[in-house]
Amino acid sequence: MAQPSSVAVADTLPAETRTALQRLFDPRSIAIVGASTSPTKRGFQAVRALQQAGYAHPVYPVNPKATEILGLEVVPSIDGLPYGVDVALIALPGAAVPDALRHCAAVGIAGAVVLANGFKETGDSGAELDAALARAIAETGIRVIGPNTSGMLNVSTGANLVGLQDVPTGPISVVTQSGNMLLSLVNDNRALKGPGFHAYIGLGNQADVRYDECVAELARDTRTGAVAIHSEGFADGRAFLVAAASAVQDKPVVMLRGGRSDVGRRTALSHTGSIAGSDAVATAVLRQAGVELVDRSDELAVVAGAMATTAPIASGRKVAILSDGGGHATLAADALTARGIELAQISERTQQVLRDLLGGPASVVNPVDVAGATDADPTVFADAVDALMSDPAVGLVLIVGLYGGYHLRFDASLTAAEDATADRLLELTTAHRVPLLVQSCYAGDIVSNHDRLRAGGVPVINSIDHAVRVVAALDRRGRRLATASQRSSLTLPAPAPRAAAGTGILDEPTARALVEDAGVDIGGWTFARTVDEVVTAVTGYGRPCALKIVSPQVIHKSDVGGVKLNVVGAGAAENAQAIIDAVTENVRGAVIDGIVVTPMADHGVELLVGATHDPIFGPVVAFGSGGVMVEALEDVTFRAAPFTEIEAHEMIDETIASRMLDGYRHLSVIDRTALARFLVRVGDIVAAHPEISELDLNPVIASKTGIVPVDVRIVLSDTHSGAHA
Amino acid sequence: MAQPSSVAVADTLPAETRTALQRLFDPRSIAIVGASTSPTKRGFQAVRALQQAGYAHPVYPVNPKATEILGLEVVPSIDGLPYGVDVALIALPGAAVPDALRHCAAVGIAGAVVLANGFKETGDSGAELDAALARAIAETGIRVIGPNTSGMLNVSTGANLVGLQDVPTGPISVVTQSGNMLLSLVNDNRALKGPGFHAYIGLGNQADVRYDECVAELARDTRTGAVAIHSEGFADGRAFLVAAASAVQDKPVVMLRGGRSDVGRRTALSHTGSIAGSDAVATAVLRQAGVELVDRSDELAVVAGAMATTAPIASGRKVAILSDGGGHATLAADALTARGIELAQISERTQQVLRDLLGGPASVVNPVDVAGATDADPTVFADAVDALMSDPAVGLVLIVGLYGGYHLRFDASLTAAEDATADRLLELTTAHRVPLLVQSCYAGDIVSNHDRLRAGGVPVINSIDHAVRVVAALDRRGRRLATASQRSSLTLPAPAPRAAAGTGILDEPTARALVEDAGVDIGGWTFARTVDEVVTAVTGYGRPCALKIVSPQVIHKSDVGGVKLNVVGAGAAENAQAIIDAVTENVRGAVIDGIVVTPMADHGVELLVGATHDPIFGPVVAFGSGGVMVEALEDVTFRAAPFTEIEAHEMIDETIASRMLDGYRHLSVIDRTALARFLVRVGDIVAAHPEISELDLNPVIASKTGIVPVDVRIVLSDTHSGAHA
């Protein structure tokens, strides 16, 4: 006998003040469009999944033929739904989707989850359907998750539109394009005994709802402790950067990227229709936005789970290792060092406390090794942690080794002592406000004291490498939160009026003037229109100069004799004339506008500085080593523009080039602040001028006299309206 | 009532033909010296552990006071033991150990496991005891494992001298200095459902038995499938290299190194008294010896377990990925690419077979994604694997995604089909002789088809990253086995007679002559003893030359005006005289032997080539990028000398410098074979001349005209008798 659903009693749901996206992610009523009476059909399983998950709000199966599904009264058509249902799960074939969405919008449905595939991920064959879908979304304003998605899941409320059962409730929220990745995460979380999940959004093709909106919405959600993202590419990378940079102020955002290699990218394109750009650019700018990128798929669950429950390391404080095995202590110290994480220098006083506590064989410098002092009485661990957390140098205590397994290794009678120690550790981490992390080779066993720690928000992890990876994330987050006010929001300024008409390559004087007008000191230069002006300029500089032809017909200046280097006053006239003659002879019909005169750069560090308009992330600045090894080294990193001075310093620090700035060999010390400001201004230029598709200052010579670009080259484009515009 | 042990019936055990080490590692009789009646004492637990492990051979508790322990008759003293017991476990305080060893040796005991600590790992305080131990070993010849060890374990026979229970029997043999590492490995193996263990040797302080002997012995042992090593340093690194290079012909050797960072090294020294040298040298030469080095502690169990049961990838063949989820396929392809492992280019024919099998939505290029084609019938997986293994390009099939979990994800009725598929996969991997590896996010669940695969030697792994790490190891092993005959045994030749008397820096002509005599072409050079001879030499070369002073009093030649570059015939006399005058003026009492004249090197790639006598590994050659960025780049790798041409090619390929050899920018193409041979000969020199502590050819200019060292500098030392000598 069908239970009367609310259809029978009201044709409008209560008035709703939430946004469409809030209603979509946390629905208080759900329609299953394409509900089925056949247990093998998704339209049946969807209804069953909601019931099994204990979803407490109205569910409306929609089917023109059936009358009852799993005890629920069936609505014959979308039009028959009460007005204002929050979400429709569309379990219809692709071709029927656009029309269904229009009907959903007409009855006030906020959002739809579209399961069907056969859209853009199939290439040309799905293009027409994809266009129809896009039109339906644009014309109705309904918010759509999918198509080609595994669904959506709100574990906390039981709004299970995925069908996966027994997902534990907890603070991790997941956004991905791949349903299997959710499955992996759930299994990884189980193996890790991690803290469980709040929301899952399977974005599929991202026809409407995209990563940026999800991350923004989930960061605002109090039940989310951390957002875990798996992505194979962004429809709008800049929007994601802006959303992430804001979201990470509230919640950690952890991301695993697929399609980073060429072969992986090809695979990703074939199954999600994603746009995947340069891995190096994406890695750099996502880090800039504060996203915690994991390189390994087995790190996503553990890092997101730990970050969801564990406080970051306070900026300026360092890590203390407490070990009950020298082998583990050494491996943990190695792994931390490999990630550039420093161990805390613990005070003499703390060392004395530990020495009194642990006795002779123990090592009381960090890493602290109890060396058997806890074998008979594991409660000593808590005393040692207390001592370490009392030390102001210590920002996190990492316990490694056999911790919590003494009752298995030595004697079952130690169980109570280990349980009590766990309780005390939770008190200590709260009282000292110093986070605690436990690595134990018994983490995979059923150990009650570990479970107590986990329930209290202290991760207990089996792998030293995973534990250290979590430490790195907590360390980075602490530093980021401390410097939040000094960072870019990554929003782009309103486009400035065009500096120059047309497209193509600007002539060098125009390019130099544009860069200089933006406040970048590029050193002395003169645009000489005659041979006499060249002579005057060279003589004026009083040192060897470079002469370069300016002609709209000449692009590769050196190839046609258009460049002379190390020209001194006495040879200026002769060299200028030689350039003019050579270009006239080599380039038929060349119009010669003049010659750019610049003093030769001092001996210094050759740097690569440039900017491009990245198709995914918008304007980005590149920085790295210049000079002869530039292609062999590939020492280059990126920042999305506009960016700030602290971000420029971090950019510099990432490169091998940075090792040559502080008085390397016979080179002078370079003013890092001046270099950082130079990069910031280059970023400001490309951020303010969306028409600039390329700005090339390569090479830039940094010396004690300044930061001087040898060349300034700007390419304009009319097609600058990238996804971010 | 005490059971009569064989003490009662014989005072000599049967005659033994095995070596002392074989008897030690696989004892057929064991004495527990320091056996105890107190259950909390190790001397009691040791007896109990042997009984619990089902050790079937005689056990002799030794204790002057007790008469019976756990039903065994107690022998009052070591002297009372029957002659020829294989192994004594010495559970006595450190001070009593040397004397006990002498008594053991007197009654024909082959080896002892010494648990006590307080030896060299405690620094000065243990030095005296350490010396006494060394004397007892040297004078008696008894083989000793330890001291400061957790013990030794032969799982196959139940010779459990560690006390750890429930270690599963299998093919992994473990050598480590840290007992806790064994615990970690056992727990990791359980979590991985790995293949289990054969032998464990806890080396402790390595007072006698060392890593090299263990690896050699275990590689010969038919019950060992792979040797897993955790090490914090070698007492004799060269001996280990030689043993490993030989052992890897038979068995994979997988190693995790602790103490790689400075802080980790400090920790290691404090608890095992190890010598830990340069991480970069150790990494390079251990790889050269064929050791599979893992960088993460969570990789040791999984890589050793998989290598113990899985065949390597045949050289020249590549990897095929078979996935049932695009997300996993992409991540696996990314991870393989990041490790430099190529995907197989599968043939048109194979693609057609797969297309027929999997239908439209599937991707039939590698990575192959079944895209739902197996959901209803997982046996299709076996057909797809059959197709892939039939393709001659394919050397390994890696299945990734949900494999084996369909009966959990979709319908329990699929269990039988999945079990049958597992059986068929085992048949296929045997029939095609192509190894199979499975990654599944259900690997941590209880899944019968996975257990069947594991029992058949196919690893089923949860982490994509771990699975790919295993692929890398199997790929490397396949290539190594195919090139085994072209590799160095790493044994050092008998020392050659000294080329020059004394110690210190050789003068440049002598150094050049030594290098040239060894068959290294270092380009033209002349030792001119007069200004006239300089003029003749420069004129003879007919191109600009470098002039360098030769004087025993001058070390830093440039600093005292002892070098002139780009000298042509016309300026030769003047420049030579200028050098002589400058040195005479700047270095009081300088004896001027003459001037070395060399033609200036052509424009080319600047390379770093040098050799040193490493304190751990003996003679090693360094190669990398030279030039201005050398310290910033740290682009340098190493090989233990003597090495072969293929090893030199691999050495070159590891460096960034190698990217500049094939016509980089305006540079000419460098003859890689000539460069490889150059490096081999440099290696031969330092291998044959143990008195050379340093050989520096830096920089070497490689150009189309040859491989020319700009300088040749040799430092001799009397203290060359390193551990390997």
UniProtKB/TrEMBL annotation, chains A, B:
Coiled coil: none
Pfam families with a match to the protein in the record: ATP-grasp_5 (PF13549), CoA_binding_2 (PF13380), Succ_CoA_lig (PF13607)
Membrane spanning residue stretches: none
Domain CoA-binding: 24-119
Keywords assigned: ATP-binding, Ligase, Nucleotide-binding
InterPro entries: Acyl-CoA_Synth/Transferase, ATP_grasp_subdomain_1, CoA-bd, NAD(P)-bd_dom_sf, Succ_CoA_lig_flav_dom, Succinyl-CoA_synth-like
Gene Ontology MF annotations: ligase activity
Protein name in UniProt: Acetate--CoA ligase family protein
